[in-house]
Every structure is written in structure tokens, then in C-alpha cells.
Specification:
Layout (H helix, E strand, L loop, with lengths): L3 E6 L3 H14 L2 E7 L5 H8 L3 E4 L8 H11 L4 E6 L5 H4 L4 E4 L4 H21 L6 H11 L4 H8 L3 H15 L4 H10 L4
Parallel strand pairs: 1-2, 1-3, 3-4, 4-5
Helix pairs in contact: 6-8, 6-9, 7-8
Length: about 190
């Protein structure tokens, strides 16, 4: 398998420089384009055909859901990752496939990129809809009334990862409410 093509949309030269260095050092990814705004993003997504689009949600403007849906229409299997270094609400981040926090080191960024590519592959037809062990742990904690922060603390993961797990759980089960997840957890003997 060849290198995966990455495009970055970020307006901070310092952030771009750091991410670029990490990607190039990994040897696993080709950085195909860096944009400082979203003005010509459709043109470059079509011409560069990135596998991964790393995007600062703060420069999208609203509504994020429409913007990202348009990108998915251009390249249906593109992986859309939020590059975050400030607070974004769960509703905004839920439209992305995953989140990369600016505090992540190179190893963790590579892990998020690779895991996100694998999830994307499952969504294209390999996914059997079963929850992973970690997703089952998240469901059990949600059913017990834990907040995202409490779940992150217990499982020693970031809040962004919890949000991603909850998004994947919702996609796989079709359950969007806490009460529905509680029933799911009881029926599947998770609590």
C-alpha cells in the first residue's frame, strides 16, 4: 500500500509547519496541498484527491455540516479530520471522522490518521456493525450516566476520542439517545 495523501487547511503557519514536519518524518503520508483558507478547497480536493483532509473547524464558517457534506460529495471516501487547539462543541466535531488535538505527538497523530483510514474503509462496506471492546466500554459508561469528560478520565483517553467513539456507536447501532443506549447496554449485558 502506498503513502496516503494528506491535505491541510489551516491558517496558522506555526501549526502547519509542525504538522507538515511530523507527516514528512513519518514516511507514511504525502502532503499534497496546504491551504490557509477554504476559498478554493473544492478545486484542490478534486485535483489533488487527498485520502485525508486535516481541517481547522474555525476557518470553515457555518454551517459545518453542509460544508463537510459537500466535500464528501466530491470524494465520498475522504477522511475528514478536525485539527483543534481551542474548544468546539460536540455538534461541530460530530461531523468529522476524528479529531487531532494540537497537543498530540507524532506517534499519536499517526495512530489517529491510520485508525481514521481504517474506519473509513469499514464504512465503505467491511463494517459488520458490531461495537469494538472500547465502544462497549463507552456505552456502559454512558448508560451509567457518565459525562464525556468522566468517560475520558476513566478510560484515559481524550474527550475528542470519546466523542468519536460515541459518533461511531451511533452510526453502528442507529441509537442517538442516552436512554436508547441504556436499553442497548442492558440487552447486551454491558451493565
Amino acid at each position: 500500500m502506498g503513502k496516503k495523501r494528506v491535505m491541510i487547511v489551516e491558517n496558522s503557519p506555526i501549526v502547519v509547519s509542525g504538522i507538515e514536519k511530523m507527516l514528512l518524518n513519518s514516511g507514511l503520508f504525502d502532503l499534497v496541498k496546504i491551504l490557509s483558507d477554504t476559498e478554493r478547497i473544492n478545486e484542490f480536493v478534486l485535483s489533488k484527491k487527498p485520502n485525508i483532509l486535516l481541517l481547522n473547524p474555525g476557518i470553515i464558517g457555518l454551517p459545518v455540516s453542509h460544508f463537510l457534506a459537500n466535500l464528501r460529495r466530491l470524494i465520498p471516501d475522504i477522511v475528514l479530520l478536525a485539527l483543534v487547539y481551542s474548544f468546539y462543541d460536540n455538534a461541530t466535531l460530530s461531523h468529522f471522522d476524528n479529531v487531532i488535538d494540537i497537543s498530540y505527538d507524532q506517534s499519536r497523530i499517526e495512530t489517529v490518521l491510520n485508525n481514521s483510514l481504517n474506519v473509513s474503509a469499514r464504512e465503505r462496506g467491511v463494517d459488520n456493525g458490531e461495537l469494538s471492546d472500547r465502544e462497549n466500554e463507552v456505552v456502559a459508561l454512558v448508560a451509567k450516566g457518565s459525562t464525556n469528560k468522566e468517560i475520558a478520565d476513566v478510560l484515559k483517553i481524550s474527550i475528542h476520542t470519546v466523542i468519536t467513539h460515541r459518533k461511531n456507536i451511533s452510526r453502528k447501532t442507529g441509537i442517538k439517545s442516552i436512554s436508547g443506549l441504556t436499553v442497548y447496554a442492558m440487552l447486551n449485558k454491558l451493565i
